[in-house]
Amino acid sequence: MKKILLTGFEPFLKFRSNPTEAAVNELDGQEIGEYLITGKVYPVVFDEINALITNDIKEEQPDVVVCLGLAGGRHTIDIERIAINCVDGRPDNDGFNPDGEKIDAAGPDGLFSTLPIKDLEAALKEREIPARISNSAGTYLCNNVMYSALSYIQTNQLDIRAGFIHVPAHHEIGTELDVPSWSQEDITQAVRTIIEKI
Ligand code: PCA
């Protein structure tokens, strides 16, 4: 059976929960289509993220890597097109405050998703799940995990497709912070639809 490594993140900044953590925990161990899902939830810590994702790819030897993250304020499932070689933004959960540094001093400026992003967008919309292609995954941990995964796969010439999906807040956060929100069920269903299409 083929394998998908599905990753999410723990809560961070003002978000006291993270819908990607719940989605990953629910789907971990499930079989969808021809894939067995292995779920991992990562800390929002720049210093750890590269080692975590590369070790998991090494150990799990997945056929596909789908990383998930919360984009509080966005209102669609955002299929990210590209990761950039840069970290910037607010302090992480360890207190490190990035300031525009490169992720990899010798790495390319950008790395494109190798998931079928147009097909995923179409599959979601077909099921009336609002989705779009996003041209920026930001400069925070989500961009970093995507860049690290794609860089490791490219450098080692592995036959693994990888990419990143941002999801909106769930209602728990939407109620607290007055940002657009979806039910956790709909978010998890969107992830399931993406895996089915892959
Ligand atoms: N979202 C953040 C980091 C963790 C998460 O779930 C981001 O968009 O970078």
Index terms:
about 200 residues, alpha/beta, two-stranded antiparallel ribbon, Aminopeptidase
Short description:
By secondary structure, this protein is of the alpha/beta class.
What do you see in this structure?
This protein is of the alpha/beta class and about 200 residues long. It has a single domain, classed as Aminopeptidase, CATH 3.40.630.20. The chain is built from six helices and 13 strands. A seven-stranded mixed β-sheet has the order 2-3-1-4-11-5-10, sandwiched between helices. The protein has a two-stranded antiparallel ribbon with strand order 6-9. Strands 7-8 form a two-stranded antiparallel sheet. Helix 1 packs across helix 6. About 45% of the residues are buried. Bound molecules: pyroglutamic acid (PCA). The site of pyroglutamic acid has 12 residues, from strand 4 and helix 4.
* Order of adjacent strands in the largest pleated sheet: 2-3-1-4-11-5-10
Reported for the largest beta sheet, the result is: 7 strands, mixed
CATH class: Alpha Beta
Question: How much helicity do the residues have?
Answer: 25-40%
CATH architecture designation: 3-Layer(aba) Sandwich
Q: Radius of gyration, rounded? A: 15 Å
The whole-number mean of residue pLDDT values reads 98
**Assigned CATH superfamily:** Peptidase C15, pyroglutamyl peptidase I-like
Give a topology summary.
Layout: E1 2-9, H1 19-27, E2 31-32, E3 35-42, H2 46-60, E4 64-70, E5 77-80, E6 82-84, E7 87-88, E8 99-101, E9 110-112, H3 117-126, E10 131-134, H4 141-155, E11 161-167, E12 169-170, H5 171-177, E13 181-182, H6 184-197
Parallel strand pairs: 1-3, 1-4, 4-11, 5-10, 12-13
Antiparallel strand pairs: 2-3, 5-11, 6-9, 7-8
Helix pairs in contact: 1-6, 2-4, 3-6
Bound molecules: pyroglutamic acid.
